[in-house]
Amino acid sequence: MNSNRRQFLTSASVLSCAALCRDVALANDVGSLVSPAISLAANSELSGRALLAKMKWLNEPASAKHSGDQFIVTTKPKTDYWQKTFYEYVTDNGHFFYLAVNGDFTLESRVAGKYAALYDQAGLMVRIDAGNWVKCGLELVDGIGHASVVVTREFSDWSTVRGITTKEPLWWRMVRKGSSLEVLYSLDGKHFISTRLGYLSVQASVDAGIACCSPEDTGFDATFEEVRLTR
Fold first, then answer.
1. DSSP character at residue 202
2. Residue 153: which CATH number?
3. pTM to 2 decimals?
4. 85 dihedral zone (left: phi>0; alpha: psi -120 to 50; beta)
5. Which CA distances in Å does 211 have to 44, 75, 118?
6. For 173-195, how does the pLDDT look when each residue is reduced to its tens digit (9 = 90+)?
7. Is the CB of residue 156 less than 8 Å from the CB of residue 125?
8. How many domains does the chain have?
């Protein structure tokens, strides 16, 4: 898989924008069998431990713990999210800590990691089911950090920005507005760079939260701070 995925990154580092949706008939997917969706009042915010306390795991990690204001997650080996594209690789066992959210929202977090192995990654995710989701985060490719976005509508595509530092935290933001989902990142938490804008199903509720994976090795520690959900 490694050589294929390297070739995929080299030949298609910025792929065409794919849509994200699902048929209403898929509404009973396991990722949606959770407590009633959160509906935030206009101009409201839920953050930190108060937000994390409302979340649950899809695919539990090796460990997850609070340390002060940090939420530290240790991934399990051979975990990832991908659907079919380029080499028919299908996996849906990455770690996703989420809650169901109604309507428009902004989700963001300051994310760091002890990235060590090929494709170690940590960031945010918005998900409808196994075949329809968006994930974003810092991803290590051949020892170099990449701001990475994967959009999946039955088939995954992969967009990256090469040369992002792995030594400092990176801020990630996902903004849902109507039928669109925008992904942005920031080096300082103030100036955000838009990396992807695509279609998102207009259904009321989606699952949103933090995510991390270690596709190739034994696992690593990802640290999430300032996790925030706003309208």
1. -
2. 2.60.120.200
3. 0.85
4. beta
5. 23, 10, 17
6. 999 998 899 999 999 999 999 99
7. no
8. 1
Place of tokens 């206009």: 42
Domain hosting residue 21, numbered range: 2-230
What are the angstrom distances between the C-alpha of 13 and each of 7, 144, 162? Answer: 9, 14, 9
For the segment 92-141, what is each residue's pLDDT rounded down to a tens digit?
999 999 999 999 999 999 999 999 999 999 999 999 999 999 999 999 99
d(CA 89, CA 30): 21
Going 31 to 124 to 145 to 13, the CA torsion angle's sign is positive
3-state SS assignment for residue 5: helix
Is residue 89 within 8 Å of 205, Cβ to Cβ? no
In this structure, which long-range contacts are made by residues 25-33, counting pairs with CB atoms below 8 Å and at least 24 apart in sequence? 26/128, 26/129, 26/131, 26/132, 27/203, 29/128, 29/129, 29/130, 30/58, 31/58, 31/96, 31/98, 31/127, 31/128, 31/129, 31/130, 31/207, 32/100, 32/128, 32/129, 32/205, 32/207
Token digits of residue 145 = 């950090």
* Pairwise CA distance, residues 173 & 182, whole Å: 8
What are the beta bridge partners of residue 122?
138, 212
SS3 152: strand
